[in-house]
Structure formats: C-alpha cells, structure tokens
Specification:
By secondary structure, this protein is mainly β. It has two helices and ten strands; from the N terminus they run αββββββββββα. 13% of the residues lie in helices and 44% in strands. The strands form two sheets. The chain has a five-stranded antiparallel beta sheet, with no helix packed on it. Strands 2-3-10-5-8 form a five-stranded antiparallel beta sheet, with no helix packed on it.
Length: 183
Amino acid sequence: MTRTAVQDLLLCAFLCIVCTANGKELISDGGFESEGSGWKCQGSIGSVVDWGKHSGEHSYHVHNRHESWSGPVQHIDPSLLKGKTVTLQSYAKLLNEGESFNYRWTLGMTKGDKQEFVNLLHGHLSYENHWKKMMAEVAMPDMNGVESVRIYLEGTPVDSHFLIDDVSLKTSINSWKDDANAR
C-alpha cells in the first residue's frame, strides 16, 4: 500500500499539532536534575537534594523561611509572557508530620520603581497530602513596561519547610485572537 499526498499532509499536520500542543517551557530545571540551575531562594535556604523526590533523581528542599514570601524563585523574560496564557504545574510535599501550609505561586513584576504582584495559584497543603499536585491555567497580565519578572512559591506559616519538584510553566497555544491582542 502506498501513501498518498493527502495522507502525507494529514500526517504532517498531526505531527505539527502534537509537537506544539504543549507550548514552550519557561522554567529552567523544574525537575532539579541540573543542580537547580536558574533557582534561588529568597528569605530562606534552598538546596537540591536526592531524597524525597517526586520524580527523577532530585527535588528542591526549602527551609529556614523568615517571611511569608520566603521560598524558591526563578526569573523569567517578560517578553516570553506577553499576551500569553500559561499552565503552571508543580508538586510539593511538607516534611514534618502534622504540618500544613497555605501556599501561593506568585508572579512578581518590576515596572520602573514599582512592584506588582499577581497570584497565579493558591491552595492548602497538609503533611497527609504527601506529594500534592498544584496546577492552574492563567492569562498573563499586561507586560507593557515590565522590566523583570520572577515566579516564586510563598505561604504561611513561615516555619513550614517543604520539597518541590517537577515545576513547569508552559505557554498555551494561542488562538488567532490571543495573538492579535498581544500585538
């Protein structure tokens, strides 16, 4: 049986859709397999560990938090977010029995001398959850004039310490209307 030009075209179209359906990954080393490249901790201590991981060989241990905003942070190029809808996904696990944590993934943006903050995802984590999946699809705010962007995990109580793993921030495939509005 020989393939026709129509079959080749359909196969090509299918592969293009499959290859682009997940969008572009904006987080560096979200699985912490490259020693946490791109990650820092603000107001806390963070380290790549090889115990208690969700998947792969490593996770990121966050402890010695001093403020509710203390936690893992990564900077993202604002031009990659302009006019986009993104899917944020991560996993977290508390380390002390009986602990609970009201978490929030936050987008911090710098515009000149002003700071703006956008809540991307929030919820509650308890020790009994073990590894909890956190996920949301979010339309990005206006990025005009934004000079820098950081995404970070924060929450209360501040004495909580936890592991995170498999952090992902992917752009969604935009419709023609999304692309036009971004211009």
